[in-house]
Each structure stands twice: as C-alpha cells, then as structure tokens.
Amino acid sequence: LAFENEVREFLSAEFPGEYRDKVDANIRLSKDELVNWQKILYRKGWAAPNWPQEYGGTGWSATQKYIFATEMGLIGAPEPVPFGMKMVAPVLMAYGSDEQKRRFLPDILESNVWWCQGYSEPGSGSDLVSLQTFGEEVSDPVGGDHWVVNGSKIWTSEANLSDWIFCLVRTDKTNKYQGISFLLFDMETPGVTTKPIKLISGNSPFCETFFDNVVVPKHQIVGELNRGWDVAKYLLGHEREMISG
Length: 245
Prior knowledge:
The protein is α+β, with helices and mostly antiparallel strands. Helices cover about 40% and strands about 20% of the residues.
C-alpha cells in the first residue's frame, strides 16, 4: 500500500496534465512528448521495471510491477515505445558484446535513441525466413570490413521517426535458416530511406524502408554470423510477451 501511494503521488505530480488531456481525447502523443515522459521516468529510476538491476532496472517484485502498471494505466501514462526498451534491449543483454551493451543500453534506457524493427518484407511476412534483403561482405583495407546491404522492409513502425534499426539481413543465400544475420545500423546511414504507408485514418505509424548500398560495419552484428534466426526468435518471444501484456 505504501508503494502504491508512492507511485500514485508521483504520477499525479509528474505526468503532465496536457499529456493526460490528449490521452483522454484519444490523441496520439508526439515523439517529443513521449521522450520527455520517458526521461521523467528515467530520472526517477522507473524507466525500465523489467530490466535487470545491473542495466538500470528497478529490482521490483512482481507485485510492485503490477501496481506500477495498474497506476500507469489508471492515469493514462503511456508505456515506453517498445522497440528499444522491450525488444532490442533484451537481445543486447542476451547476445550483445560488452561493447554493444555499453554503447546502446544507456541510451535506450534514457530514451536518447529511438529504434525500429526491420523484419517483414513485401514478399516475406509470415514466412519470415524467406527474406531477401542481402548483406554482402566487403573487405576494404582503407574503410575496414563491412557489409553492403540492399533490399527493403515493410511495416517498419515509426521508421520515419527512428534513429537506429535492428534488421534481419540475409548474409548467406545457400542456407535458409542459418544464413540470416541480425544487424544494427543508423537510420542516417547513406542509402537508407523511408516512405510512410498512409492509412484511411490519416495516421501513419507504418513505413516502407529501403536500403541502397548501405554500409554497415562488421562490429554492428549481434550474435554470430548467419545465426541471426536464433536472435530473431528470442526477440519475438519478448515481442509476444509485450503484446500479450
């Protein structure tokens, strides 16, 4: 009960009234508003209740997490955008190198960087392993080893607002399942473009995303080369858990 009161008082004082009015009116909060709210939670230490404490999680019990989620819902406070906090972050914790964890997790926790997901393709939706976006290995004595990625993704939610993408890329055309790699790259990389998919509502959370000779450094692979399907399945487990919640 004491924790419930603490959460309720904090949300009442810190969740901006104008955001609550928009939520009550079924108006989507802007990226700046969502980031601002996430940073308020971050400063309180409550940005990532389900993360391990070593990465900035709260260490709460299941009951405390339930109370927090309930109070957030009662006041209309939005959950964090899931692609960074609830999808790629657990992947980095499980499969990322120490350098990748140091580089990416603090910015995800503080909502400094927005992520999007590059999985589905125009011809590879439910049959995801048939994806054709291809990364060719290039060894450049001046520029370093990297992939050159060509292809496209679809239904990349909020890609037009995102800073980075986690992407499934075919790196071996001879093996359907063990020929996919899980790559991270900056959406500002030359050759990356997005096109919103207009809906009849006028809203456009979905995008097409295109890759035209996009250079991705070798160290931005998560997990092993050609074993990205293992990483993808792990992430999908967290995505399903998030959606069911």
